[in-house]
Write a structure and sequence with these properties.
The longest helix has 17 residues. The chain has 208 residues and is an alpha+beta fold. It is globular. A hairpin with a 6-residue loop joins strand 5 and strand 6. It is built from 7 helices and 14 strands. One of its GO terms (molecular function) is zinc ion binding. Keywords: DNA-binding, Metal-binding, Nucleus, Repeat, Transcription, Transcription regulation, Zinc, Zinc-finger. It is found in: Nucleus.
Length: 208
């Protein structure tokens, strides 16, 4: 009966996320953690979730079992096919209540809504940088530290964050572990994949 209740007693102290289940909160808390125990042996990709690693491993496979009946596009993930199917639809179900912006993707609306928010309660005491997320501030504060424990064995590069070292190591590699599920392009860096995906999203939203 708990699933039919509006009561969400388990609350994240970092961002205010709330849920009806303690296990969901425990899983959510990993999004604020720098610890990523599940590592890909092929390319070094790491994630907080076992399911995330399992999903990532498909990027190293040539098998694409989910096929679009409209155009023949194929994908390794069912969610990617579902995302792709929106390209054949004129419907933009996710609308902004503030300005009327609409999109086919919930994630894009969520990102858009941040443009209407000025709430950034977490402030850096050193430089005044502010953010809406405690975890983001914690990462930012490391920029002011002279300690750089993560060192590249190939060159003299060093950094405060393990994730930055992993990203840097790709400059010494020809591996491109991140694949675009829309067009199949392989990309070296996750942030570049995000930028690439925005191009697809922009084209999709402007085409109708």
């Amino acid at each position: 009966m708990l699933t039919h209740s509006l009561l969400k007693p388990f609350i994240c102290e970092t961002c205010g996320f709330s849920t009806q289940h303690k296990s969901y909160l425990k899983s959510h808390m990993l999004t604020h953690s720098l610890i990523k125990p599940f590592v890909c042996n092929t390319c070094g990709f790491s994630t907080q979730y076992k399911s995330g690693l399992r999903s990532h491993m498909l990027s190293h496979s040539s098998v694409k079992q989910f096929v679009c009946e409209t155009c023949g596009f194929s994908a390794q993930h069912k969610s990617s096919l579902k995302y792709h199917m929106l390209t054949h639809s004129l419907v933009k179900p996710f609308a902004c209540d503030t300005c009327g912006f609409s999109t086919k993707h919930k994630s894009i609306l969520k990102s858009h809504m941040l443009t209407h928010s000025s709430l950034k309660p977490f402030v850096c005491e050193t430089c005044g940088f502010s953010t809406g997320y405690k975890a983001t501030l914690k990462i930012h504060v490391l920029n002011h530290s002279a300690v750089k424990p993560f060192v590249c064995e190939t060159c003299e590069f060093s950094t405060q964050l393990k994730s930055r070292l992993k990203s840097h190591m790709l400059t010494h590699s020809t591996i491109k572990p991140f694949a675009c599920e829309i067009c199949g392009l392989f990309i070296k860096y996750r942030q570049n994949l995000k930028k690439h995906m925005k191009i697809h999203n922009s084209i999709l939203d402007n085409s109708h």
